[in-house]
Design brief:
With 305 residues, this protein is an alpha/beta fold. The chain folds into two domains: 171 residues, Rossmann fold; 110 residues, 6-phosphogluconate dehydrogenase C-terminal fold (Orthogonal Bundle), CATH 1.10.3660.10. It contains twelve helices and nine strands. The chain binds NADP nicotinamide-adenine-dinucleotide phosphate (NAP).
């Protein structure tokens, strides 16, 4: 694969930006990768690992002469960074982001984008519960979806080039409008994270079950909640605040279903429970058939205690 962008600026050097840098290096997709991060500590770690060609101290320096700028910071921080870099962006450059919420990011960033720049929001549906510059790896986006959110004014050539970059990093690319993106992600990611956070919180509060019991007997389902609930607190605080209405809509529906199942348990309505669980099992099969997870027992873990 040949170089897609001569110079790429990564603003933020955590899991997603680090993984992009590793994947771009592997495929020789960028002439030069320039990175920056808010803290001196993260910048130093990134220099030590060496996944960027240059690590600079400010976002303004990083975007100078960049053909592609990627905002890879929490969604709540994107507006203030966009304000700083707006006047420094190169004529004809593309700016994208990787934020987990789209409408809010567009509202925060678009006002600071000059007319001569293509702002194309994006969201790779790939991640782990780890964060920071040491957590990235080149294969993160392989066979995962990346959603791009163009609008009617988006330049086709710029959109095609960004799509080519994501595909070259291993992702499947789809386009979606911002409102639909936020609703889909409320169902597939945001509400499930909130439920996991709540379940782990409940176990932590329950005095009749000891901490040791929770830890030792977690393989019965709880362990998978704890993995999700270990996700970065800053990122997830910002996601819920930025995708408030879609998340609240899905949580409302979730609560109704939960009450219906609670009632089925109380009234001993086994048929209802059985039918419900049969329907949900089919959804799991669909995810495995689409190659988005493994069908191996216990998520393919070697240790099946
Ligand atoms: P991460 O590993 O925690 O890295 C966050 C980066 O943002 C760090 O460079 C950090 O700088 C910087 N940052 C934090 N707060 C900031 C602020 N107030 N102003 C400027 N910079 C700030 O995060 P990540 O997982 O890569 O997530 C980055 C973005 O990708 C988020 O918008 C998230 O919604 C999205 N995303 C995440 C996942 C996932 O599963 N993790 C998946 C898809 C999309 P310092 O370290 O220097 O403080």
């Amino acid at each position: 694969m040949s170089v897609i962008y001569d110079r790429v600026a990564l603003i933020g050097l955590g899991l997603i930006a680090g993984s992009m840098a590793h994947a771009m290096r592997r495929g020789k997709l960028a002439g030069e990768i320039v990175g920056t991060s808010r803290s001196a500590e993260t910048r130093e770690t990134a220099r030590e690992i060496g996944f960027c060609d240059r690590v600079v101290d400010t976002a303004e320096e990083a975007v100078a002469d960049a053909d592609l700028t990627v905002l890879a910071i929490p969604v709540g921080a994107m507006g203030s960074v966009a304000r700083k870099i707006g006047p420094r962006l190169k004529h004809g450059a593309t700016v994208t982001d990787v934020g987990s919420v789209k409408r809010h990011v567009i509202e925060q960033v678009a006002p600071f984008m000059p007319k001569h720049v293509n702002f194309i929001p994006g969201h790779p549906l790939a991640g782990t519960e780890h964060s920071g510059p040491r957590s990235g790896f080149a294969a993160l986006f392989e066979n995962r979806w990346c959603l791009l959110v163009p609008d009617e004014a988006t330049d086709c050539e710029a959109l095609g080039r960004l799509r080519t970059l994501w595909e070259a990093m291993g992702a499947n690319v789809d386009e979606m409008d911002a409102e639909h993106h936020d609703l889909v992600l409320a169902v597939t990611s945001h509400a499930p994270h909130l439920i996991a956070y709540t379940m782990v919180g409940v176990a932590d509060d329950l005095k009749r079950v000891t901490d040791t019991e929770v830890v030792n007997y977690s393989a019965a389902g709880f362990r998978d909640f704890t993995r999700i609930a270990a996700s970065d607190p800053t990122m997830w605080r910002d996601v819920f605040l930025a995708n408030r209405s879609a998340t609240l809509e899905i949580l409302g529906r979730f609560t109704e279903e939960l009450f219906a199942l609670q009632r089925a348990i109380r009234t001993g309505d086994g048929d209802r429970l059985f039918d419900y669980f049969t329907r949900t099992r089919a959804i799991r099969r669909g995810i495995i058939e689409a190659g988005q997870d493994t069908g191996a027992p216990d998520f393919g873990r070697a240790d099946t205690n």
